[in-house]
Amino acid sequence: MRSIDLVVAAPHVLTMEGEGVGYRADSALAVDRGRIVALGPTEEILGAYAPERLIRRPRTLLMPGFVDAHCHMELSVLRGLAQDTGHWMMYGLNPFKGSVSPRDRLWGFRLGVLEALAAGTTTLGNYDDLMHQEAALVEEMGLRGNLTQLVREMPERVYAPGELYRFDEAYGRRDLENLLDLFDRWDGRGDGRIRILFGPMGPDFLGEALLGEVREQALRRGTRVHLHVAQGDRETEQMLLRYGKRTIPWLQERGYLDEHLIAVHLTDATEEETRLVARSGASMVLCSNSIGIIDGVVPPARTFLEAGGVVGLGSDQAPGNNNHNMFNEMKLTALFHKIRHQDPEAMPAWKVLRMATVEGARAVGLGDRVGSLEEGKRGDFILVDLQAPTMMPLFVRPMRNLVPNLVYAARGNEVCLVAVDGRVLYEDGAFLTLDAEEVREEVLRLADPIGEASEETFRSVRGTNFRFMEEGKL
Amino acid sequence: MRSIDLVVAAPHVLTMEGEGVGYRADSALAVDRGRIVALGPTEEILGAYAPERLIRRPRTLLMPGFVDAHCHMELSVLRGLAQDTGHWMMYGLNPFKGSVSPRDRLWGFRLGVLEALAAGTTTLGNYDDLMHQEAALVEEMGLRGNLTQLVREMPERVYAPGELYRFDEAYGRRDLENLLDLFDRWDGRGDGRIRILFGPMGPDFLGEALLGEVREQALRRGTRVHLHVAQGDRETEQMLLRYGKRTIPWLQERGYLDEHLIAVHLTDATEEETRLVARSGASMVLCSNSIGIIDGVVPPARTFLEAGGVVGLGSDQAPGNNNHNMFNEMKLTALFHKIRHQDPEAMPAWKVLRMATVEGARAVGLGDRVGSLEEGKRGDFILVDLQAPTMMPLFVRPMRNLVPNLVYAARGNEVCLVAVDGRVLYEDGAFLTLDAEEVREEVLRLADPIGEASEETFRSVRGTNFRFMEEGKL
């Protein structure tokens, strides 16, 4: 009997291997030093390994943790302040964003993690410009971080629709230096749990020269470029104003579309442009809730898949989406596509479950490490309580309803245990690597000062939510 | 000081009075013998009343309980078995429905209640043909039941698309007798908590004569007709085959459209037909999740509202929707309309919150009793935990984010207390009037026999989910 760190056994397992969901009954996972060393029938695994800890729960489902391929969790601090409005970025988000200090954002980041981790997210694809501090938090909390430090040449302020953004070269240069420094310090840390990606914020937020240089530096280091692409009519307008071209053809001409690119959103991509990106080898990240609420649009993920591309899912940011919960993203992705295509067979449950796990991992360059339960991959897994009302009843024949219930009924609170690299981070409501009570207290405290500091801009914009407040609708 | 049963006080209150959400800070509700006797500033209420029980919790929101205007909770027993498929009713639901006994359905009903009650639903608009037993359960559990016994002339079996349903007059007659008996026994019971509506199942499920008679009998008793209307192309096809007319014009010619009618779905209604129903005084029930997943359609609720109609929300049934949770219905209603109209300002949070409470109550004929917190109405209320991560942070200025967070971030598990007629039915995870453990055990037990009995029909239909099982996708 080989001594190892952990065996986790469950009556139902979704490994996500192969082309489907890799269902197995009564199976167990053996994990040692963070790595999956075996997966097999429970009795066989228990006969071969002597684990330091055995997790064996009746009426649970064992499956890989979720990959949130793209998010800005620090903005959780502005949850519920930017929705139901047109011109989201300038009229919804930015009146508040300017009043948020780096300290506030780090508490917002922790708040986002509270929500995401409890709902089974094990890989955070966070995208921000505070990545030195956030990488340290991720390392400390034991999560997997596929972290992107952003680079832009445009200092933030509220622009009116149709106003061309002004670039500041020194600003962009500083961002790039900071990114290179971050990469050197953090990439590969925490036994490889932390990876650093390069994040030019969008083709409209920095100039052509810097955009090219970021890519070149990324390739030199063997990492990927994580870029907002065609993220809405606001961006398209900027690109047409500046270059007289739409984003995707413009990027293609500059050799930007290839397997090194993670293209986020594609909100405003035509069918033809979508196929162009998919065929280039770039991956797509779909943020269904965020783009649905911000733009009223369902990005063309089905077209991207049909053209042979790989798609991951992202929760984007709380002001807008208002959630960091991959159950929410799976469900909305399935439902929104049924509506977009007026077809109840569009985007079935198993397909979106793959996007949130194994395909999501491939989309962000972690396909060899996580996303499925397979020997050699890292021990990132969750247990789901099958006695939660939303997961009941449990049918095994003539069809299993596990996957439909996970996607369409579960809300996230069915997750009862979350582990990364075989280390349990969350169990039955308790966070083992972060102080949830402290996060709550700090987050409750910082709202009033942010609100006060935002008041003048909020009033001057006179947006939809300003009107709703006046009318007693909020 | 007047002695009363209950005072509930909270730092934030949404009364849902007036045209908005009726926000009040630090307020309390005084309830006596089931009725709201006063609502005012907490200190004022506590100075005027001596309650037997005082519920006063920091960091909570007090608001009316939700009205689920239309559901079939007994079908929770088939959760997760009918989705991702075309021809939902015949190919998704019916292969299983025939194997479900009345006893199974009553356990399914209890399972649905577990989910709904914990998520703040206080009024159940259940629609079924087991209403004698369900009314007894509702009375026992202390909920408010706006219950509809269905009447149809068509015995259930799987029909192929295009096959005209065959009616059985004796079957319909028996249903009507049963309904009249139910009304006599149950309407008004439980201090008025139970109301009985008349439910002809749909204009395609019974003939013209019986449809007319059900309405006549309903009007004679001062209750409403609760009817599936234009619920999809399946129904439209039946109406064209049988009468050569689409549903809504056909109903109008027969004087069926007026304020006595609750019209559910309108999935297949044209814009003009929708306005016709709205202007007739009939109300609409919108089941966003259900119709989205079953048909890939967003029913025309915005048009209905614009034409002056009143709209409530319903969770419909678990196989399909897969949820009985009004938070889910509110969120999807808002998001689906943004997508349908490609407009982020379509269906803002406050509007769908009204549909789930005060407008929903009006839509089903309970506008004088529930849906808002006002003196004279019944004491149906919930408390929401504002320390749940999804409800944080809490901003009060320059805009309140309470309503957006309720609609877009909350998932239902933020509800910490639910009361009907001033009686607490659910508190901090505990169900005080039903045995949740017994429901879980029974529901887990009945899946295998239902699955076994359905196997042959499921296989013979060879639908999408059959193929998914073969391919390892479930």
How much helix, percentage-wise, in residues of chain A?
Answer: 25-40%
Q: Would you tell me which CATH topology of the largest domain in chain A applies?
A: TIM Barrel
Classify the oligomer: homodimer
Biggest interface found: A-B, 94 and 94 residues
Radius of gyration of chain A: 22 Å
Mean pLDDT reading of chain A: 96
**What structural category arises from helix and sheet content of chain A?**
alpha/beta
Task: Report the CATH superfamily of the largest domain in chain A.
Answer: Metal-dependent hydrolases
The CATH class assignment of the largest domain in chain A is: Alpha Beta
Count of separate structural domains of chain A: 2
Largest sheet of chain A, in brief, is: 9 strands, mixed
Secondary-structure arrangement, i.e. CATH architecture of the largest domain in chain A: Alpha-Beta Barrel
- The fraction of residues in strands of chain A falls at 15-25%
Count of alpha and pi helical runs of chain A: 17
Identify low-pLDDT runs of chain A.
Answer: none
Query: How many angstroms separate the termini of chain A?
Result: 62 Å
The total of beta strands of chain A comes to 17
Domain Amidohydrolase-related (chains A, B): 62-424
InterPro entries (chains A, B): Amidohydro-rel, Metal-dep_hydrolase_composite, Metal_Hydrolase, MTA/SAH_deaminase
Protein name (chains A, B): Amidohydrolase
Pfam families (chains A, B): Amidohydro_1
